[in-house]
């Protein structure tokens, strides 16, 4: 059952430069405090959706050209939301709940913790301070970061697709690929991400198969309010 859903998702999302990785809600809830739990039974089937470097050309630009007049908020968020809503149509007999990375609850907490979801689904390894044996940071706050085995840091976690009516008790959990395996490299990664994230060097901590084009880098380096102009949109 999970395979059949996964194949249908791959068929729909792959051509858009999006990846979907299956997980059970229980894997996610098991590593988080109750305040962050997803309100579904443990065996519920879910997928975390990532955008790869090719999403910019395969999904965003065509979407902008077609929906030009309807784009009123962040074009990437709107593009992903459009395509994930269309994915729901491919499962007319199923209830499909969608959560987006930018959504927050009334309590101001995010609806889901994107990097934890990517890690438990085996999609990308979430490197955190606890993964470093000799921690050099003392009292500093150090945020963790996900690294994809193929794209390094050149990807983004966009949303979750949840199938409340599909229970998958026998789904096996894949371990994420630990591609930054030495302490030195992990320290370098977390230093770059926390203190020099603007220059994007952390994204290249491993050798990557594909990264953002110059046009895409320029787009994401531009303050959100000015991105409309880059895409030829007026606000």
UniProtKB/TrEMBL annotation:
Protein name as it appears in the record: Cyanocobalamin reductase / alkylcobalamin dealkylase
Keyword Zinc: no
Organism, scientific name: Dasyornis broadbenti
Family to which the UniProt record says this protein belongs: Belongs to the MMACHC family.
A GO CC term attached to the entry: cytoplasm
Entry cofactors: FMN; FAD
Protein location: Cytoplasm
Keywords per UniProt: Cobalamin, Cobalt, Cytoplasm, FAD, Flavoprotein, FMN, NADP, Oxidoreductase
GO biological process assignments: cobalamin metabolic process
Reaction equation(s) it catalyzes: 2 cob(II)alamin-[cyanocobalamin reductase] + 2 hydrogen cyanide + NADP(+) = 2 cyanocob(III)alamin + 2 apo-[cyanocobalamin reductase] + NADPH + H(+); apo-[alkylcobalamin reductase] + methylcob(III)alamin + glutathione = S-methyl glutathione + cob(I)alamin-[alkylcobalamin reductase] + H(+); apo-[alkylcobalamin reductase] + an R-cob(III)alamin + glutathione = cob(I)alamin-[alkylcobalamin reductase] + an S-substituted glutathione + H(+); apo-[alkylcobalamin reductase] + adenosylcob(III)alamin + glutathione = S-adenosylglutathione + cob(I)alamin-[alkylcobalamin reductase] + H(+)
EC number: 1.16.1.6, 2.5.1.151
Record-linked Pfam families: MMACHC (PF16690)
Gene Ontology molecular functions: cobalamin binding; cyanocobalamin reductase (cyanide-eliminating) (NADP+) activity; demethylase activity; FAD binding
């Amino acid at each position: 059952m999970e395979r059949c859903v996964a194949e249908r998702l791959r068929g729909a999302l792959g051509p858009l430069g999006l990846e979907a990785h299956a997980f059970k809600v229980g894997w996610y809830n098991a590593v988080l405090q109750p305040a962050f739990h997803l309100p579904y039974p443990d065996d519920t089937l879910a997928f975390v959706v990532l955008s790869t470097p090719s999403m910019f050309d395969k999904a965003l630009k065509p979407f902008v050209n077609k929906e030009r007049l309807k784009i009123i908020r962040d074009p990437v968020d709107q593009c992903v939301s459009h395509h994930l809503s269309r994915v729901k149509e491919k499962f007319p007999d199923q209830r499909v709940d969608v959560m987006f990375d930018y959504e927050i609850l009334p309590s101001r907490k995010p609806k889901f913790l994107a990097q934890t979801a990517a890690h438990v689904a085996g999609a990308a390894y979430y490197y955190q301070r606890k993964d470093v044996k000799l921690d050099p940071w003392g009292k500093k706050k150090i945020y963790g970061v996900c690294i994809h085995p193929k794209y390094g840091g050149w990807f983004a976690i966009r949303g979750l697709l949840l199938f409340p009516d599909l229970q998958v008790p026998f789904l096996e959990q894949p371990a994420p690929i630990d591609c930054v395996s030495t302490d030195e490299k992990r320290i370098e990664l977390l230093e770059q991400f926390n203190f020099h994230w603007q220059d994007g060097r952390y994204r290249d901590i491993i050798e990557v198969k594909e990264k953002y084009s110059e046009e895409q880098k320029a787009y994401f380096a531009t303050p959100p309010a000015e991105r409309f102009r880059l895409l030829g949109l007026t606000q």
